[in-house]
Structure formats: structure tokens, C-alpha cells
Amino acid sequence: MKDRALLPAALLLIGIIALPLAAAVPSGVSSLARLGEDLNLRRIAANTLLFSGVSVALELLLGVPIALLLHRRFRLRGGVRATAILPWALPSAVMAMSWRWIFSDTFGIASDLPMRLGLASQPIPWLGLPATAFASLIVADVWKTTPFVAILSLAALQTIPRDLDEAMAIDGGGPARRFFMVTLPLLRPALAVAVTFRLIHAIGIFDLVWVLTGGGPANATKTLAVYVYEQYFLFGDRGYATAITLATAVAMFAISVAMGRLIRGRAPA
Amino acid sequence: MRRAPFILLILLIVAWSAGPFLWSVLTSLKPAHEVFRAPPSYLPRALSIESYTEIFERRPFGLYLLNSLVVAAGSTLLVLLLAAPAAHRLARMRRGRAVGLERGFLLFALFPPAVLLVPLFTAVRALGLTNSHLGLILVHAALNLPFAIWTLTAFFRELPVEIEEAARIDGFTPSGLLARVVLPLAAPALAATGILVFIFSWNEFVIALTLIQRDALRTVPVGISMLSGATVYEIPWGQISAAVVLTTLPVVAAVLALQRWILSGLTAGAVKG
Amino acid sequence: MATLELIGVAKSFDGRTPAVDGIDLRVEDGEIVTILGPSGCGKSTLLRLIAGLERCDRGEIRIGGRAVTTLDPKDRDVAMVFQSYALYPHMRVRENISVPLRLRGVAGAERERQIARVAERFGLARLLDRWPRELSGGERQRVALARALVRSPSLFLLDEPLSNLDAQLRDLARGELREIFRQVGTSVVYVTHDQIEAMTLSDRVAVMSAGRIEQVGSPDAIYRVPSTLFVAGFVGSPRMNLIEGAALGDSAAWVGIRPEDLSIEESAPLRMRAAAREPLGSHHLVHLRCDSFDLRILVPAQTHIEASVAIRIPPDRIHRFDSSGRRLAD
């Protein structure tokens, strides 16, 4: 049978991902009841949602305009595009170290620059205070993943026939009207994919948090994935770690798919 | 848009995108005493490569690099080996059936690695493959396989089936067809997909952090995150910056040189699929 | 309704080779002018310059006496039908048609009334709630026309609007177009590479080649008195025979004669060999050969032709051109 070409790939996925996932479910389910009693968890879930919502919203607000700029023709466009997608391709954990250095209070450029510009009178302990640490995390994540939204938007822009924009220009639309009446509606399917995918990964974020803030100060930046890691590898509580994972996964898919649907809007039949 | 604001915006995008990397480059070239100067100097007053020599001489950075290379190359090879035949078959299948199977594969791509952490670790430990590159290669391959199948299927769908039909009439056996006709035609797509898988594996952190505890087997991202001194003020930022630069340099080079391929590999499935 | 004047209009995309090379053209109020030419001759660029989708390097464009050379498309009061129709895929037919009205602030009952009126005229009433992708090629073309004509533009531009239809539908649509042009009475600039469209639809035809207008005139004049060698060879099917004058003992550099103007007459002095025969339905095109040149002659299908025939070239049907391709006085 020809379909045996699919077999090795399917076996690897089943063996490494599906079976272990299924095997973990029972121990997780038996610990689900404990989720309700965990006050830390509420705080951490709220952190995760706030982080994901703000990050993904900013990525959309920046990614789409960047895609529009990179869609235009100009000299050195290839080089600019390559540079713009760079953050997305660089290792999160490694660049998190770079951001930690940038956000360092005594030696960091993010603390020094505002002082030189007269915006701050003393070094800002970016990673030392809950609110600023949270903001730092979002800045680093937006830096890292805006290119992903921009790449998908750019690819979608390239599939929109130029005729449509021109037709609306003749029908009487200025640039803003043309963007909101032609370009944006036609971008929506691609943006829906991008947002669904981005929300899933933002809710599951680990690398950046772990390296940049370690979840601190005072749990202010701790996310669900970091909490799972701690429960399992620090406290050895596999059942509880799995319970959080299951609950997270269900919520993650529900939220992401719902947001994706919302953004896609009504689709042409 | 007017020309001047447009150029300004483009410059802003470039500066913002390349900034953190460039700042690491500058830091890595400063001598140790200048790294820890407050307020910081923006351009190095003296250039020094001591940070670079130290990570190789006083830290096992060379070993980390080698480990990362083995794992990334191994998982890339494994992914292409498994994904190419599967994608080709999917592309040549009746469309309705293929879409169902493709979705089945794609389902696995939806999980962020951190969510799979606990089950993955349990499984790899049960196989006795913790603290081994093979275990990490298997996991990285599994995580990247759905994406690779997706993009390659989109590519094979673009390839005219008539070429393969002509080859079959010319007398190629099924395996000969794959080796002598399909794969050579697919080389660009395989390369684009391979580069992306390599980058994903090279960058991956959380699985590598948990599966491998022996320092001599660690990959670069984990190794760098663990470079530290005794106290906060002894964190060797010069060395870390040098390590950041050396780790990201191959990725930077790949992206700059192969921008078009990478974009096409990343978006083939998204746009055409 | 308005006149259109083009004065020395020029455009180059690379700064060296001109796409449109100094065009002067005047379209009278209510006149239908076709720009006819082979692909790459600059006719679509010229249309885009008129619409304002491209900016001229030189020259001036006036619509209704008003200079619009530097205006945006939306401020020129033109309507355009694109080759691809450019229907907005995310809008239903009703919304597609309503866009030009919405963008000009026509609202409420007035908008509905105008949409109903144009839907009625183009037979779209039962298609108003469909998506573009649910329409056939002919229906899409009618939606594109309706969208362009729902308001009353000064000038109506069409870029190869029939080229995406199959042959049968194209004949039908050509008739409909002529009827519509007559009804709305707006000045029309119509770009096509199809000479049948140009001949049947327009008051005047402008034949373009390599960025320049070769000749402007009524369809009849273009066919009967082509003013350049290019027009002589491009307009008319089957193509005109073009022979070096020397071969016929003529002082002109080039001599042209249409295949339908030649006749077989036993008394004629020119003897040629029949080389091949192309059936074209009611007529056949016969390829003839003699030592110094070839000719094609159009004959009724049942005509019997010997291996060697005598051909008459009526002197009053001859077109003569000088070495630069310009027509010589008859």
C-alpha cells in the first residue's frame, strides 16, 4: 500500500507526542480538583492571560503596518526584510540574555538612555519591580514575535491583486478608506491564522520568562508554563503539573480558536 | 507616503530589529572592566576579544556549540527523511482525504513545547534516553515534523504530476522515481524547510533544558542561560555577550543570505495551503 | 459627460524606454474611442495615465476642460472596468455596486434606488446577494459594468473588458456593450487588442504601436485608408499582403493589397503557383508564390484553383508606403 509512506512520520508523532500525552491524562485528571484551591495559580493564570493579550495585540498593531511598509518597492528591500525577520529567527533563550543585559539597572542601555535624555533622574530597575518587569517581558516578546505577524501579513498582502486597490481608488477611496475597505478585510484570514497561532504560543511561553525574569519579582511575571516546570522539576509533583497542563491546554485552544474566529469574521461563501 | 517619513520608518524598523543583537556585539568587544562601567559607554573605547577567548578557554562553549550542531543536524536530517515521502504521498492523494490527514498531522504542531514538557520528559525517561543527544533529536524531530510535512505538501502540490507520470512511462521504478526525479526537483523546498527546522532545533530551549542535565552534553542556549558567577555583580556579561553573538551569528548569516528561501518555506503552506 | 484631451502625454517606467511616447488625442463629448494595439504597445499604460493610476512624466490631461494631470484617481470623476473586473471578493454584489456611491456620500434610500436602477438595467436583480466567486464570467463582467456606471462619471474607461470571456459570450457581450454605451451617452475610452471589438464598438479607433498613436480615424477609414505600414499590417483579417515595391515594378518602398481585393482572371499578366490552402469557413485563403514574392488571396470556399493561376491586382486597391512606413498619396 502506497500510504505506508506516511507511516514512519505518524509513528514518530504517536510515539513521542500522542502516547505520552494520553498516558499523562489520568494522573492529571485525578489532580484537577486541586486547581481550585491554589491561590498562586489564579495570579499566574491572570499574568499569563494579560501577557498574551497585550503582547499579541501589540504584535498585530505593529506587525501589519510593518508588513505594509515592507510590501512597498524600494532599494535594499531584501536586506531590510531580512533584518526585520531576524528577531523571530534568533533563539529566544539566548536573546533573553541579551535583553537581560539591556534591562540591567546599573549597566543597561534601557536604564541609561532615559537618564541621558532627561526622562529619568536615576537608574530604572526594569527587572526589579513587578510592573516594570512585566513591561520588560512584553517588550522583549513583542520584539521577538512581531516579525512573525509581519511575515504572514506580508505573504497575504502579496496575494491581494493590485487591481482591487486601484478599483477603489477610481471609485473614490483615499488611502485610509482603501486600507480599511479592501486591504484589511482581505488580510483577515491570514491575521486569524497568525493570532490563533500566536495566542497558543504566548499562553505557553516559557523560554523568555525563565531566562529574563525567572518569573519574579514576587511571581509578578510567572506564567503557567514556568509554574508547571516548577511543580514538576522543583517539587516533583507530576500529577499536579499535568493537571495544570491539561487545564491550560483546554483554555489555550478555546481562547485561541475563539479569537481566530472573531478576527476572521464572516467569510465569503 | 512622502519619501522622508518612509525612510525614517524603515530605518526605525531596522534599528529596532537589529538593536539587541548589535548591542551584544558591542558589549562582547569591550574589555571586562569597560563592560561593567556605569554609566555604560556606547561604543567600545578599546576593542578586546578576551570575552571570546575566555568562553572557549574557561568555559565549555566549544562543546556546547558541537552539541547543538549534532542535535540540530540530526533532527533536521530525520525530519526531512520522514517528511519528504509523507508529504509527497499526501500531495498525490485525493484532496479530501489528504486534507483530513494533513489536519491530523498539523494538530501536533499546535502544542507549544512547554505544554508538552511533562509528558515528553516522562516518555523520554521511560525510553532511557535522558542525557542523550538521541533523545533530544527524536523530540526535536517530532516537534518539527508537522510543519515540515505541511510546507513540503504545499510544495509537492505545485509540482506538476505530469512530470512524474512521464517518468513512470519512461520506466522509472517507484523508488527510482523518488530518488532521480522527485527529490532533485524538490531540492529547493527541502533546503528551505531544512534551514527552518535547523534553526528551530538550534534555538530550542525548554526541552533541551529538561532532558539534558549533564553539562558536557548541553546545547548552546541552555549553556548560555547557565553562564553565571557567584553573585549578581559577577555575572560575566562580556562572556555572555560573546556567546550570544557566536550563537546567533550563524542564524543571522542564514537569514540574511537566504531571506527569500526562508520566507517561501515559512509561508508556502500558509498562503497556498 | 465631458471631453477628454491628451496633450503630449509621455511615461517611461525605467527612465529610458518610453511606454507612452508623446500622445495627443481628443475624445469628444459622448464619443466612443477605442485604443487598439498589440500587447506591450502602451495602450493599457495610456488608460492608467488617464485614470490617474500612473503619473505622466510629461504632458497634460484634461477632462471636461479641467486639468487633472496631477489629481488622484478619486478626484478625476472617471469610472473604470478592469480586465480582471477587480470585484471586491469580500463584498456581495450589492456592496460591490454600492462602493462608488458610499465613497461619494450617497446614502439611504437614494443609494438603494440607484442600486436597484442599475441592477435592473444589467439584469443583476436576483444576483445582488451573491458573492463574486459564485458568479459566472459573464455575470462578473456585468457586475463590473454596473459598479462603474452606478454613478454618472465624466469619462468611462474600459481595459480589455471582454478578454476573460469565452468566444461565444464575447459576441453577445459586445452587442450589449454597444447598447449600453449608446444609452448612457458618456464619453468612452476602450482599450483592446481585438480589432473586431474596435471596429464594431467605436466611433473612432486610435491604433497604437510602441507607445505612439499610428492613426486615429473612423473604423472604416482605418480599414480603407491605413496611414502607416503598421496599421496596414495590423488592421484587417486576414492580414494585408505587403510586398517590396521593387518586386512589382512600383516606385514605393512597400506595396500592400488585401487578400479580399485580389482576383483570379485568366487575362491577367501575373502568373503564380498555388502553394497551400487554408479553409476559413465560407472562404478559403490560398497561398500563392512566384519567383520574387508571395501573396495570399481570399476566394469563396468552392472555388477551384489550378496549380498555376493568373492574378489581377486592382490598381485602385493598392496601398503604397515609403521606406519610413508612411502612406504615399494615392
Properties at a glance:
heterotrimer, A: 269 residues, C: 330 residues, alpha+beta
Could you please describe the fold and organization of this structure?
The complex is a heterotrimer of chains A (269), B (273) and C (330). Chain A is mainly alpha-helical and 269 residues long. Chain A is built from eleven helices and no strands. Chain A has helices at residues 7-31, 39-71, 77-89, 92-102, 109-116, 130-157, 162-171, 175-203, 207-212, 224-234, 238-264. In chain A, helix 2 packs antiparallel against helix 8 (175-203). The longest helix of chain A has 33 residues, at 39-71. Chain B starts with a helix and ends with a helix. Chain B contains 13 helices and no strands. Chain B is mostly helical and 273 residues long. The model of chain B has no long low-confidence stretch (mean pLDDT 84). In chain B, 77% of the residues lie in helices and 0% in strands. In chain B, helix 8 (161-169) packs antiparallel against helix 9 (174-203). The radius of gyration of chain B is 23 Å and the shape is globular. With 330 residues, chain C is of the alpha+beta class. Chain C is 25% helix and 31% strand. In chain C, the strands form four sheets. A six-stranded mixed sheet of chain C has the order 6-7-8-3-9-10, sandwiched between helices. Chain C is elongated and about 75 Å long. Chains in contact: A-B, A-C. Chains A and B meet through helix 1, helix 2, helix 3, helix 4 and helix 5 of A and helix 1, helix 4, helix 5, helix 6 and helix 7 of B.
Q: Which structural class matches the secondary elements of chain C?
A: alpha+beta
- Report the biggest beta sheet of chain B as strand number plus sense, adding barrel if it closes: none
> What structural category arises from helix and sheet content of chain B?
mainly alpha
Helical proportion of chain C, percent range? 25-40%
| Strand content bin of chain B | under 5%
Extract low-pLDDT stretches of chain B.
Answer: none
Helix content of chain B: over 70%
Number of helix segments of chain C? Answer: 8
Tell me the strand order in the biggest sheet of chain C.
6-7-8-3-9-10
Mean pLDDT of chain C, nearest integer?
A: 92
> What's the alpha carbon Rg of chain B, rounded to whole Å?
23 Å
Please provide the ordered H/E string of secondary-structure elements of chain B. HHHHHHHHHHHHH
Oligomer category = heterotrimer
